[in-house]
Amino acid sequence: MDVKDFDYYLPEELIAQDPLEDRSSSRLMVLDKKTGELQHKIFKDILDYLKPGDCLVLNNTKVIPARLFGVKEGTLAKIEILLLKRRENDIWETLVKPGKKAKPGTKIIFGEGLLVGEVLDVVEEGNRLIQFTYDGIFEEILDQLGQMPLPPYITHTLQDKNRYQTVYAKYDGSAAAPTAGLHFTKELLEKVKEKGVDIAEVTLHVGLGTFRPVKVENVLEHHMHSEFYMVSAEAAEKINATKDRGGRVIAVGTTSTRTLESAADENGRLRECSGWTEIFIYPGYTFKVIDCLITNFHLPQSTLVMLVSALAGRENVLSAYEEAVNEKYRFFSFGDAMFITDNLIK
Q1: What angle do CA 11, 14, 15 make, to 5 degrees?
Q2: Range 86-95 average pLDDT
Q3: For residue 296, is pLDDT > 70?
């Protein structure tokens, strides 16, 4: 399976640089996963496609202001750090730029000494393990000094930190937002419940591995980075009950999808659990839990396009993306949405 099989043409001007004022006013492309047929809607129209007895699964992770700017101790050399994964206590795996200035033993000063990081080791992909020291509460200091880690294709400054956060974000830990959820407002979620649709919440702390380019020609040789996930007993019961009554499990985002497919047993049953997942879903994969997916439009040749293609078929997906380009949909994190379903409304 060649990575080029998942390529498509995208004009740069279609990459959304800013979030819309009204989250739920994004456009929504509805794709029939069996036939490839398309419909063009507005995101709040998602209500028309949900049925009583369905279960919507949200990823309630919260993005931390993980981008820090500091200076090397004793110099004026600037160093940028991105927090990727908390290893233990105050030791984090980080991405450091420029890496050559961050050898083991290097100390980095943030906020004139409010926070100090010492490089302990260099690990896979050149990431650095850094131990932080500070007075007070780490999360409060991070909130004061850190910036939201927007993807590199977004060049505009984000005016409101909360716009790169879902309205249901609860648990700190992500280096990137589960962007499919950005389209939901609290009001829209209330209407979902009123329709008789159950809502289950899982957690997957999104790392940058999801967004790293596939650097091998053969897709099967690509290695996913591990990400931490949790499924509560309540969420497992809701999803199992949905399956038992013949309802559909609708994942909001690829992160919710990867959580459910990682946590389920061979029969698609869930139980309370947590762990690390490196699951890589590409065409040929048989889904155990999810039936439908709400997602954004993803980067060419990315693992996310491969996951979506596993659910709806590569040709259907690439044809839908071509239509999205022609119709000038907005792409990527702050862009428009797609609903991959089995019931178009005639």
Answers
A1: 105
A2: 90
A3: yes
